[in-house]
Target: Aminotransferase class I/classII large domain-containing protein
Amino acid sequence: MLSRRCRQKNEVTVPKIFSQWNALPSGKDVVDMSSGENWMMRDEILEAFTAPGTLDSLGEKSFSYPEGIGGPIETRTALAHLLNNRFNPGNLVLPSQIVLTAGGCEALDALIEQICDPGDGVLVATPYWTGLDISISVQNEAYIAPVHIPRDLMTNPRCVDYYTHTLRSVNSTHPVKALLLCNPTNPTGECHSLELLQALLDFCEQEEIHFISDEVYALSVHGGSSSPLTPPGTPQLPNHSPQATTFVSALSLNTASPNLHVIYSLSKDFGCNGIRLGALITQSSPSILLATALNIGPQVSSITSHLATTTILNPSFYSNFLETSVSRLRGAYLYTSAFLTKHGIDFVPATAGIFVLANLGENGTREGEVEVMEELKRERVKVIPAGAWGGIEGGWCRIVFAVKEKDLAEGLERIGRAVEARRRQVKATIKGREGSLADGVVLNEEDSVQNYGKRKRKWGMKKEIVREIEPQSLR
Model:
């Protein structure tokens, strides 16, 4: 006999995940540019944990249950120092306002359990990382209410109109309890302004819902400088490189709202996904913090907490580490953006994170996405397609550039060959159709072989989705 939750996972969630991953190549010869991990600083992390004397700091207590509710006070104190030093909070973050968890997803999972009943809604802008489905829908049976925002308004305070429209549309069937914002965004790698954060907080206060800011890429802002890694002979287009954008944390908002919560984790910024240490930061809601702490119990191991405290969260380590990491991310991003530009591949300029969203399918259809994914599979390179994100045209793929330097160069070359192979296929198909005009086939201007591969498709939603969700005032 299985529970309803288990049946749901086996009948819906597991097949969905398997279908996505079975479409991707596997094997030792595959260049993996799909996984949200920063490999560019892996040697530095390894060196820090294997340095002479590192393990000497372990004591008998390191093998006991963690002390204190919410995690070891030493680790929470060290994390509070990082947040106060790097996130510019309006009010200093105290160790008592932090609950440690085994990663960012677990922090979100625990928080959603405290604020949502089964069937309640959580507003999330598309495209979003599908791992959020696990924490919100699978684990807690809450409903993700997708907010479809036009590309040019994604980081504009006017996007509040779309959140309002979605809330009104779903509230009767899925009472909305929270808005979840990823800042910086995944998969587009953009930062949100203080004005936008304030507008969203005001909206949440007005609607009496929680505002959750997922800030796991906060210290990976790389936008805009030149790089020696740019391929020789590739022109640098000023309007194709994003302006440098400063990350603004929701903690910097001058508020005492009990409904503001921040999620953070060491995984992304420090390139250590295997060190499961995340946190929920809530400055004005001790009841939620206490309930969350009691819910997760001793989730983070004492050894993990101790080693993270004495190495990663040591200011003498992370100051130089983060500076080097940002420099390498900037170089890898500019190398990637220059490659995409050189090959005529449209992409969303990013200012943060470890990835870029690129239009590899080019014609905006799911069929085109399947075709280009087949070519990528033949080339033995792995990226995540738009079908895994939702709300955007087919063919857009997330490319992780924070890989080893040799893998970055080889992976991009394979992507380039895959895109060119599909372009040849499409041109051959169009040419065949042009040869059949006598049989009554009529081509529009966009279909012509001269235009294919030259036009740029602005990233965004399909037109029918825009019409369906667009507030009347913005049409």
